[in-house]
Design a protein that fits this description.
By secondary structure, this protein is mainly α. The chain is 40% helix and 0% strand. The longest helix has 28 residues.
Amino acid sequence: MTDPAGGLTGPGEGAHGVEEPYTGPPPTRRPDPSQWPARQWQPAPWGPAPWGAAPWGAPRPVFVPPPDGVRWAPPPGTPPHDVPTRFTQVMRARDWAWWRPLLGLLLLAVVYIVAAVVVVLLTLLTGIAPDLALLDLVDPGVLLVTNLSLIVAIPTVWLAWSVAHGMRPGWSSSVLARLRWRLLPRFVVVALATLGTGIVLSVVLGFVLGGGQVTGPVQDFGWLLAVVILTTPLQAVA
């Protein structure tokens, strides 16, 4: 489930809507070395100077930049974006590089093809689908294999996010890095009003224009219904 609202990954006006405000840690901007103060003299670590404290008070603490070779890293749990980012650009995280999307596309192509081939091989070994052409989608075995060949795309996408982009798989769902369950009822209503209406119209037009006939429940209707309920939602997510 992706984020259709085009929200932002960080706090901001209208970022996520009123019903689900951002509650995570704030974005952290990478320190700018040009803004670091120059190294200054500091008191010796073993105590005050032997001639006493300066009349103008104790020296102010000075931030000393990390030594060369030390890599800056944000605190654990910090969002991977320095500024609020829209979902369409959520992959442009703090450590984005030009090669990351190329690696992600390569992983998607290779891993998904391998996973789909494994599903087909399991079909051959177990004989679940009698028709390897996978054209008769009212057959429970054919529908199961078809859905599984698409469902394996979910862990493939998660792998691409984790390996290629170094981000949690939850970022593939929304700007909150997780599924936005409060939006689900709204989406269900929209789906019923669009997809449901389209299916009803297609059936009606099939009878009016194509001379369709009601043939009754297909064979193994119970298994077909179980496959639809258990796997079709995951197939739609994939």
